[in-house]
Design a protein that fits this description.
Elements: H1 19-24, E1 37-39, E2 47-49, H2 50-56, E3 59-62, E4 65-68, H3 74-80, H4 82-87
Antiparallel strand pairs: 1-2, 3-4
């Protein structure tokens, strides 16, 4: 008996082809997006595109780190207590 199983990539890997997307004919919207996505430190869990946030000025730099926001209201909230909101990203 031989073991013909090959190592496969994780279904969550964005660098490998998404077999589910390929078989359905849909575009893999997660491909290449992992480097651009983060979450808002104020509205925890809200996904943020770094590129879109930078283009809109929705970011702050605090202690050498850049934080991206999901909306215009989050920047002033972050400014009121940056350490508190930065801790949400740890």
């Amino acid at each position: 008996m031989t073991n013909d199983l090959q190592a496969s990539s994780s279904c969550c890997s964005t660098s490998a082809a998404n077999p589910a997307a390929a078989s359905s004919g849909h575009e893999n919207l997660l491909a290449g997006a992992s480097d651009d996505l983060t979450t808002c430190p104020v509205m925890v869990g809200s996904a943020v595109s770094k590129k879109a946030a930078e283009a809109a000025g929705l970011y702050r730099d605090h202690e050498g780190e850049r934080y991206y926001f999901c909306c215009a209201g989050c920047g002033p909230a972050f400014d009121s207590d940056p350490a508190r909101y930065a801790a949400n990203m740890a």
